[in-house]
Amino acid sequence: MKTSTDTDTDKRITADTMIRHPLVVPPSASAYQFYAFPLAIIETRPESQDWVLSNFIQTCFNPDHMAPVPFCHFLYDYRDNPFLTSHSMTWDWVRELVTSPTGFIAEQVQSGYYVYLSADEFYVPRRPNYQRMHFVHDMLVVGSTPDGSQFEVAGFDERGGYLTAR
């Protein structure tokens, strides 16, 4: 753990100190979280603007989810993005190497990574299903305490707004 102190203020990282990565909220395209998450990360870099404008066009959104032509294609290959490096893990690898999921996620955040995962929204404040029903959904972990006791995640809230919440 990195620590530093001076005579005026103790700046030691404690279990209560949240390490948080930069994020643009809301990103320029956010109809679906799997598009919003990488854009929220890369748009922290001004030089990504031309790439974003060349690769993302939002034509329309039908709030009733009754669009006759499905324009959304979920299988986006993040490796095609010159401003984003991604790593994937298989479930076999996770089961073999990860003894504490929250500890592992905290370690990744502390190491400078954003963590894209699926989790039960029942336990995540400000989510549409918080304390109402169990619903597994994707989310992006953008911050954590060193001990993994708290996380900050990005995504859509109970009103459909894009934000981060602890």
Annotation field: number of helices: 4
Mean pLDDT: 82
Structural class: alpha+beta
Give unreliable regions as ranges.
Answer: 1-13
- For the report, how would you describe the main beta sheet? 5 strands, antiparallel
* N- and C-termini, Cα separation: 22 Å
Fraction of residues in β-strands: 15-25%
Write the layout of secondary structure elements.
Blueprint: E1 19-20, H1 33-42, H2 49-55, H3 91-97, H4 101-110, E2 115-120, E3 136-144, E4 151-156, E5 162-165
Antiparallel strand pairs: 1-3, 2-3, 3-4, 4-5
Description of the structure:
There is one protein chain. The chain is α+β, with helices and mostly antiparallel strands. It has one domain (19-165). It has helices at residues 33-42, 49-55, 91-97, 101-110; strands at 19-20, 115-120, 136-144, 151-156, 162-165. Strands 1, 2, 3, 4 and 5 form a five-stranded antiparallel β-sheet that branches. It is globular, with a radius of gyration of 18 Å. It starts with 18 loop residues before the first strand and ends with a strand. The model is unreliable at 1-13 (pLDDT under 50).
List keywords for this structure.
166 residues; 5-stranded antiparallel β-sheet; 4 helices; 5 strands; disordered N terminus
Write a short abstract of this structure.
Helices cover 20% and strands 16% of the residues.
